[in-house]
Amino acid sequence: MRNYEIMYILKADLDEAGRNETIEKLNGILESKGAKVNKVDLSMGLRDLAYEINKETKGFYVVLKVSADEEALKEFSRLVRINPVVLRHLVVVDHE
Fold first, then answer.
1. Domains and CATH numbers, the chain
2. What are the b/e assignments for 12-46, b being 16+ CB within 10 Å?
3. For the chain, which end, N or C, has fewer CB atoms within 10 Å of the first or last residue's CB respectively?
């Protein structure tokens, strides 16, 4: 397993309970495939987007540090792409 950093942007109109539920659900996808979520960082929080995405101008940023294999990341990416509350996501190798 390699270390990865995953960032995704949730719709800004989610309330805190809905946001937490979505984060737990997405973490569960990774953990069900054998990945380990090492850190969840919500410090970026709600921000203006650099450009409009699906008519949204604000988004809530979530950053994860995970240890995972390719299969877990492929499944995560597949399910995030079809999730209507996730505007964008990015997965990069963490070299720390």
1. 2-93 (3.30.70.60)
2. beeeeeebeebbeebbebbeeeebebeeeeeeeee
3. C
